[in-house]
């Protein structure tokens, strides 16, 4: 039976594109779910951001690389080396596009770095490529100079709410309530009672999408549908929209428009060009028609509630 509750938050470890600034490091985003770290991209300096965010180096962890441009993957080498120097023992899986295995192995060989833990490099394909008890991770190809994957963490549905009044009305003894909550049929006085007779409909899990570097596409729009949070490439603003097309990125306006069409509930823009020093002010001037859009900053944290938690708050 799935757990009914799991804490989930996003920590932005780096929000700049290509060139870091004094305020922004290179791309890296950590989803922390019930103590497990799901790291998306590892730009240069990610291991330092790990220290600053107090994430820990010997925790259950998976790493997902969107594409093999330096500002998204070079920090993986230092991160692995730091983990080993701190005597990590837990196995680690790293997922990414074709070429990732050679990139890691060749560089680790050149650095003469021997790891203290088992490392598994796994090549990603579109669709569902990872399934755990409580969630899946899916991939969608973006539109960039090289293969880039957007990733979606999608939690499986949680069980519905147990209704004790219904159980009492049906004469089900309390000793059998736990069986029903485990999705088991019980027999009372020769009559079979199914879980759905005393348990409400299943409750939807959360969906978080991280785009990597990409132009807006119809495929990405479909991939975003149903997202509670979408973290999107926003390298440029409208004044540089031609550069966005030239360098295969999205503008903030394009990212917001794509999210609106997909019905995304909350949009977080990131991967800003170092030319923009006051991102928040620029975004405020163009985001009025796109509700629930914010600009990420380094070490910003966002807690992600369950959809039904938000529904209950609205009722209150």
Structure description:
The chain is of the alpha/beta class and 316 residues long. The chain folds into two domains: 8-158 and 203-315, 4-Layer Sandwich (Metallo-beta-lactamase, Chain A); 164-197, no CATH class. Helix content is 27%, strand content 24%. The chain has eleven helices and 16 strands. It has helices at residues 46-52, 70-73, 75-85, 100-110, 164-169, 177-181, 218-224, 241-246, 252-262, 279-286, 307-315; strands at 8-14, 28-33, 36-40, 61-64, 92-96, 119-123, 127-131, 135-141, 149-155, 186-188, 191-193, 207-210, 229-233, 266-270, 293-295, 301-303. The strands form three sheets. A seven-stranded mixed β-sheet has the order 6-5-4-3-2-1-16. The chain has a seven-stranded mixed β-sheet with strand order 7-8-9-12-13-14-15. A hairpin with a 3-residue loop joins strand 7 (127-131) and strand 8. Helix 7 (218-224) crosses helix 9. The longest helix is centred in the N-terminal third of the chain and has 11 residues, at 75-85. It starts with 7 loop residues before the first strand and ends with a helix. The mean pLDDT is 93.
